[in-house]
Q: What sequence folds into this?
């Protein structure tokens, strides 16, 4: 492809959300679609360093994008995995409340039902222990529609669909700026030490950890519409044995869903993520955080002191709120919000971004078709 070619759409960022958006645009007949990725492979950042959980839609305020796109995305994702042979398991999840948290758990239960998660089950302590004998708590919610998915297999399938529709992937191609060029958008793409300009009719900023920085380099994008970026590191520790059959979560806190037990598809258990605010991405796991993990996990799994927790891996959440602030909704900003024709920017696409990816792809496709914010 020559630098002077005008393509119909460019998606900046090839994590799971960027790939889902690129696939959605290509399958909707948007013409020539290019996905550009600054790393040497797709999905090297947030998408390859999360829990791989398919969320049901319990946690998010009614009517929020997170609630709507999570519930929609969950069913799209399960159907897609079955169709494309992507490994997943609808294993279910328990959210555990201690005695002082039962009222808050009831509120969470009612919110989930209102969001359309209609299969939730309220469990007393005895019923909870029958399902997961090792957990301790006063009550729990069972979410049967929560599951796990192989995120890498999912991205491989999304990329294959995208390329089958004529989509083009360009790796090692960081975008350093976007400006208007004769009715199109010109992307300055740095590749191999040289800078090329790629012209596009539509551009989607799905750059994840870099989305806010990129927005500051978009000509005409109002700076007061760009949220502040914060990086929340999440560490994981692995655990020997298989003490749980389901995902086990404590009550959520202000910055995340608490240090919870998640499963790999082979049944092995890991704990995390915690919340560690950082200034720059750093994927090393500090073994010194082990005792903080034990203290948190002990609340719902007393036997944690009997097992060895080993440092696993870490990921970074691209947050748009900082310490002590209430959780923010997804921000999907189109021309109506910022005034740049043909441009859509995604900010704060953290959990449940993996679950919502296909629904986000639908949303962005509709937004670009209409030229205004989807409703």
A:
């Amino acid at each position: 492809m020559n630098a002077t070619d005008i393509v119909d759409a460019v998606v900046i960022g090839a994590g799971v959300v960027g790939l889902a958006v690129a696939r959605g645009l290509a399958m909707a007949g948007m013409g020539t679609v290019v996905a550009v990725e600054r790393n040497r492979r797709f999905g090297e950042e947030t998408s390859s360093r999360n829990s791989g959980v398919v969320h049901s839609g319990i946690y998010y305020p009614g009517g929020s994008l997170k609630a709507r796109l999570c519930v929609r995305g969950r069913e799209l994702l399960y159907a897609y995995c079955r169709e494309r042979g992507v490994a997943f398991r609808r294993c279910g999840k328990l959210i555990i409340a201690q005695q002082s948290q039962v009222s808050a758990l009831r509120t969470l239960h009612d919110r989930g039902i209102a969001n359309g998660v209609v299969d939730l089950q309220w469990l007393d302590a005895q019923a909870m222990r029958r399902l997961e004998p090792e957990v301790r708590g006063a009550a729990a919610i069972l979410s049967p529609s929560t599951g796990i998915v192989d995120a890498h297999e999912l991205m491989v399938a999304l990329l294959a669909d995208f390329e089958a529709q004529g989509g083009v992937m360009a790796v090692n191609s960081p975008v350093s700026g976007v400006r208007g060029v004769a009715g199109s958008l010109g992307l300055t793409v740095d590749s191999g030490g040289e800078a090329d300009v790629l012209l596009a009719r539509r551009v989607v900023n799905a750059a994840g950890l870099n989305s806010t920085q990129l927005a500051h380099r978009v000509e005409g994008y109002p700076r007061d519409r760009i949220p502040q970026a914060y990086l929340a590191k999440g560490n994981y520790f692995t655990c020997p044995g298989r003490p749980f059959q389901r995902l086990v979560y404590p009550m959520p806190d202000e910055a995340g869903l608490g240090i919870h037990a998640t499963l790999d598809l082979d049944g092995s258990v890991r704990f995390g993520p915690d919340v560690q605010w950082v200034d720059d991405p750093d994927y090393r796991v500090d073994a010194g955080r082990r005792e903080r993990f034990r203290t948190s996990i002990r609340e719902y799994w007393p036997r944690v002191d009997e097992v060895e927790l080993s440092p696993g891996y870490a990921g970074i959440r691209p947050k748009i709120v900082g310490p002590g602030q209430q959780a923010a909704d997804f921000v999907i900003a189109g021309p109506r919000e910022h005034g740049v024709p043909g441009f859509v920017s995604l900010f704060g696409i953290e959990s449940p971004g993996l679950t919502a990816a296909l629904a986000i792809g639908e949303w962005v496709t509709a937004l670009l078709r209409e030229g205004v914010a989807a409703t």
